[in-house]
């Protein structure tokens, strides 16, 4: 079984990462394809991510998934809150019956260096050392690719947690400085809402997720 990683966060919230090694036929008998996806690998990613929803909670109602105008999948009755992500040959999902959630996985590549000054606020660039003392803020440096990937993944996870689109990553999502390691958590803000981001760095894969009680949810 290509289950890459699983974590039971609490009694009502679980996440998992699946390494896709199967053909489409493995998922097709279980997971409905809710929209036309012409690219074979993207279709496989789509199916694998949704397969995890019922893997984590066997009673998850695939047939009730709706797609918001922001392209976020959701359940109208909010029996479960969930978020999915896929990258390369990996798919990930987080599901909860009590928390609003967001998840993101990324494969670290040098491309993140080119966009760092677009998703990080100037103050974040200074705090995380994205600018050299000999260069202006926004000019890219030898910042470790893994750490920059984590910062991007964290903001993506928050964006999915929010779920309503129209987010300026550099202005509306702020990350507090932390000591980077292979696993941990740090504080962040979305507008006026304080959040705690959790992360883990695997070999050539970055995971970031956030979960908040519904009473903290700015949509409720």
Record keyword descriptors for this entry:
single chain; 220 residues; alpha+beta; 11 strands; globular
What's the layout of helices and strands?
Elements: E1 3-10, E2 13-19, H1 24-28, H2 40-56, E3 65-67, E4 73-75, E5 81-87, E6 90-96, E7 99-106, H3 111-119, H4 122-127, H5 145-162, H6 169-172, E8 173-175, E9 183-190, E10 193-202, E11 205-213
Helix pairs in contact: 3-5
Explain the overall architecture.
There is one protein chain. The protein is α+β, with helices and mostly antiparallel strands and 220 residues long. The protein has one domain. Helix content is 27%, strand content 33%. It has six helices and eleven strands. It has a five-stranded antiparallel β-sheet. It has a four-stranded antiparallel β-sheet with strand order 1-2-6-5, covered by helices on one side. Strands 3-4 form a two-stranded antiparallel sheet.
